[in-house]
Write a structure and sequence with these properties.
By secondary structure, this protein is an alpha/beta fold. Helix content is 41%, strand content 20%. The relative contact order is 0.08.
Length: 520
């Protein structure tokens, strides 16, 4: 069914997820191919309608990621982004070729400031490029989306002419992005009403919202755009994206579900997967989710004050507008210990939304047992850290084998580290100004590299002094930065894991990390 036919179904809103494109574009959120595949599979399973998998012309890695995602996604449409040039469009067409439902998403700037300074083109020239680009894309795929970049700062007459021309050339979705996060709900709602009224062929396309969060209004603006007649929302998990991010998928979906009286739309999202998706994206990008983040923040369903707790005990609806279960937060997070067996662990993983292969399960179970030996209570968060970290590092070429650190009041502190580098084990000892410094110096001695440490952050996965530490490390090299996490009950081991995960990510991005060590 084409998107235009689908629109006739009453008030269905299509969820277009751009975590893997606009989300991945923000500094430090780089994902490896395996990570992108994991995210795409989860988005598909949770009912996302369109997955924007990347910007194929940007690099060979981006092209490969879009092409691989196109092969594995079963239900969703897979979109590849392209500027208006033919090379971009052809590359996007090639990347999505194997998708069950391929889409090319092509865009060009239409605002005076972008046309004058960025494109250095006259409006008439831009209009001709709109027609040519959409026509080119339409020759490759049936499903073509056209976006007017900086749409909310575009002059209305010109916007309407471009939209009409794009639809005439074959675009089936028209996206009017608030590229710089400048609009406000009333204005954005009115913009969609105006375009839909004034453009004679507007009934032949689905209109789409795409909001950035520079003024903190991305979700409110997106919902207002729906009220103005848009029926596709472009958004990202956890709201990650350029600068202040994009509209958060989980917030839009739960606003529609919880306030269906005022947002009478329907999405196909299985909301019980939202927490899982949030955690996966946070793990693979290593972007922490703020504690008070709506829907998926750690505190989103926590009631601390006495008055609130009292109200909750009397009736949950006193302070809860949606249930934790509806977004996939399990009722109790205290789960298991060292006496828990295989079956209980398997059931727990299933309940948490994991689908592991037999080998992955055996590996996870072994590591769960090791953790349970060291930690009295194993919580859901511990299991998540343990499984997600393994999934994220499954293809790493540099792995930590062992680490011993001598710390204390008398320096210098010393770290002895053993690594497995592409199957060869190597050991090194290093000193440092503190145990973390010594640990990182040992890595530098074993894997010489130019990358600069931009961020080092530690937090506890759960409560208690035996809690696992989760460490985030950001490394930058050659103008690119990657962030990675590592978890372990030992903070120094977690630090080493996080640093190595970041190095592996840089390496996967084709950076030149020299792991020139002879095998011992
Ligand atoms: O924000 C924006 O304008 C975009 C376009 C490429 C759709 O991301
Ligand atoms: Zn954007």
């Amino acid at each position: 069914m084409s998107p235009v036919d689908q629109r006739s179904k009453k008030d269905r809103v299509f969820i277009f997820d751009t975590t893997l494109r606009d989300g991945e574009q923000c500094p430090g959120a780089t994902m490896t191919l395996e990570e992108k595949l994991q995210v795409a599979e989860l988005l598909d399973a949770m009912g996302v309608d369109i997955i924007e998998a990347g910007f194929p012309i940007a690099s060979n890695g981006d092209f490969e990621a879009v092409a691989e995602i196109a092969k594995v996604v079963r239900n969703a449409t897979v979109a590849g982004l392209a500027r208006a040039g033919f090379a971009d469009i052809d590359r996007a067409g090639e990347a999505v070729r194997q998708a069950k439902r391929p889409r090319i998403h092509t865009f060009i700037s239409t605002s005076p400031v972008h046309m004058k300074y960025k494109l250095q083109k006259e409006p008439e020239e831009v209009l001709q490029m709109v027609i040519a680009s959409v026509t080119r894309a339409r020759n490759l795929v049936e499903d073509v989306e056209w976006s007017c970049e900086d749409g909310t700062r575009t002059e209305h007459d010109f916007l309407c002419r471009c939209v009409e021309a794009a639809i005439k050339a074959g675009a089936t979705t028209i996206n009017i992005p608030d590229t710089v996060g400048y609009t406000a709900p009333d204005e954005y709602r009115a913009l969609f009403r105006m375009v839909r009224e004034r453009v004679p062929n507007s009934d032949k396309a689905i209109f789409s919202v795409h909001c950035h969060n520079d003024l903190g209004m991305a979700v409110a603006n997106s919902l207002a755009g729906l009220e103005g007649g848009a029926r596709q929302v472009e958004c990202t998990i956890n709201g990650i994206g350029e600068r202040a991010g994009n509209a958060a998928l989980e917030e839009i979906v739960m606003a529609i579900k919880t306030r269906n009286d005022i947002f009478p739309y329907e999405t196909r999202i299985d909301t019980t997967q939202l927490t899982r998706a949030s955690k996966l994206v946070s793990t693979v990008t290593s972007f922490p989710v703020q504690y008070n983040k709506a829907i998926v923040g750690r505190n989103a369903f926590a009631h601390e004050s006495g008055i609130h707790q009292d109200g909750m005990l009397k009736h949950t609806q006193t302070y809860e507008i949606m249930t934790p279960e509806s977004v996939g937060v399990s009722k109790t997070s205290l789960v298991m210990g060292k006496h828990s067996g295989r079956n209980a662990f398997r059931a727990k993983l299933e309940e948490m939304g994991y689908r592991l292969s037999n080998n992955q399960f055996e590996d996870a179970f072994q590591r769960f047992k090791d953790l349970a030996d060291r930690k009295k209570h194993v919580y859901d968060e511990d299991i998540e850290a343990l499984v997600d970290e393994r999934l994220a590092t499954a293809h790493d070429r540099i792995k930590l084998v062992s680490l011993t650190v001598i710390a204390g009041t008398r320096g210098p502190q010393r770290a002895t580290m053993r690594l497995d580098i592409e199957g060869h084990q190597v050991t090194e000892e290093a000193e440092g100004n503190g145990p973390v410094d010594a640990t990182f110096n040992a890595i530098k001695a074993l894997v010489p590299h130019e990358a600069v440490l931009e961020l080092y952050q530690v937090h506890a996965v759960t409560e208690g002094t035996d809690a696992q530490a989760e460490v985030s490390v950001r490394l930058a090299a050659d103008g690119r930065s990657v962030t990675a996490r590592g978890a372990d009950p030992d903070t120094l081991v977690a630090s080493a894991k996080a640093y190595l995960a970041a190095l592996n990510k840089l390496r996967a991005r084709g950076e030149r990390i020299h792991a020139q060590h002879a095998a011992e």
